[in-house]
Amino acid sequence: MGSKKTFLALLGVVLTLCILSACGGMQGQEGASEPEPPAQEDVSQEEEPTPEADPASATELARPSTAGALRVEGTQLVDKDGNPVVLFGVSTHGLAWFPQYVNADLFKELSGWGANVMRLALYTDEYGGWCSGGDRDALRALVLDGVDYASAADQYVIVDWHILSDNNPWVHADDAKAFLADVSATLADRDNVLYEICNEPNGATTWEDVRSYAEEVIPVVRANDPDAVIIVGTPEWSQRVDQAAENPLTEQNVMYALHFYAATHKDDLRNRMVAAVDAGLPVFVSEFGICDASGNGAIDEEQADLWLATMDELGVSRVMWNLSNKNESSAMIWSGSDKVSGLDDADLSQAGRWLKARLAGEWETPEVTLSEQGAATSARDSASAAVVTFAQGDLTVAARLENSWPVEGGTCYQYMLTVRNDGPACDSWHVDVPFAGEVALVDGWNGTYAVSGQTLSIDNASYNGHLDAGQSATDIGFQVSGPGAGGIAA
């Protein structure tokens, strides 16, 4: 009997130590700012299947099964009975680059988080895009599969004609019409499909360019789906909703895209959104991030929450960028995870954890009143003043100051450039950006950079050197510091 008691006592101590060790390990994991790499899985054993989420239990946001086909009334999306509707979800990255995340299990899982909309980003002119050598059969199938997966998960879905480096939607307007005619005919009986007909017009593209394009493209969709909600991009990377508000389209069931990245776009752009909605424009934030405008860099959750609270006040729908494990801060999946469903918190980036918590309503909503957002006129003027345009040979360069922050001994400034070719087609380009004083290069992307005194020289990257006449290279960004970094002297 004594030996049995000793054995039981020892067993109790061992079990207690194991439990304490396990609890301590969980506390350490929860407190980590960045998740540790997941343990190597034993590929010889099958994983337990992930339980299917019940979308209806995760959120009070509208679902196609109950809300039916959406329409636009005033500035608001409404359901089949005229009740206000807000869509909140996530966008894929480029379908050609990250097709693995378009799968039924993941869409159902995100629906369980509370996402009631998915956006399918079909790039047009980037590598592997619809108009740049991509496999059109595979891309078309992926779009249609994505619609099926969203439908099965009781979600709305946006088919996104994702122009970017082509800058002006007229560049591939014929392709846009052919693709949208085909897809809208195939999906004509679906009540949950919205169409975004030009992601981010940019460069020298004007609202009149976009408006005239939309007037030709919208009827193509309407011929097959007369009541579909259509989202139209606006100039300057879908930020100029003020220009659309001054001269909106006459078509019904149309909304206008505004895109923001919270660490870059703050009061000025929020003011512009508030003023546009106040002027009667139905705004849809079809892409946003909680990092800076490069899609990478610092995350600003405080500003992101202010944006979210303001959109809630206005009843503005929103879709976060992006569903991938790309090694950048806008990607919602940690770059070290290769999972395509069954995501744990350790598989999520900071952006992914932010999204999951906000979809679940697990956040302290900042107080915001629309009267505090400021006047639209001052926002428009200050935004315009931050853009500098200058010519070098056959090239026109548009440089925009996007952000700044203090660093040791000074300030770091972030700029975004568009380089438009106004001459004959070229296979390479070079621009010199003059500053008022000496600068030092901190970082740069989508180009090759060198600094000499007050001049920052930029050559094309290996993949964006060829520019046809009228074509632009976009998403060229850099960060500089130094005495002259605060202004371009062009």
Structure notes:
By secondary structure, this protein is of the alpha/beta class. It has two domains: 55-376, Glycosidases (TIM Barrel, Alpha-Beta Barrel), CATH 3.20.20; 386-481, Immunoglobulin-like (Sandwich), CATH 2.60.40. It is 31% helix and 24% strand. It has 13 helices and 19 strands. The model is unreliable at 1-59 and 372-385 (pLDDT under 50).
Search tags:
Immunoglobulin-like, TIM Barrel, 490 residues, 13 helices, disordered N terminus, alpha/beta, five-stranded antiparallel beta sheet
Number of strands: 19
Q: How many structural units, i.e. domains?
A: 2
Gyration radius, rounded: 24 Å
| Low-confidence regions | 1-59, 372-385
First-residue to last-residue Cα separation: 93 Å
CATH class of the largest domain, named: Alpha Beta
Strand content: 15-25%
Number of helices: 13
Q: What name does CATH use for the topology of the largest domain?
A: TIM Barrel
- The share of residues in helices is 25-40%
Structural class from helices and strands? alpha/beta
CATH architecture of the largest domain: Alpha-Beta Barrel
| Overall spatial form | globular
Classified in CATH, the superfamily of the largest domain is Glycosidases
Strand arrangement in the largest pleated sheet: 4-5-6-7-8-9-10-11
Tell me about the biggest sheet? 8 strands, parallel, barrel
- The average pLDDT value, as a whole number, equals 85
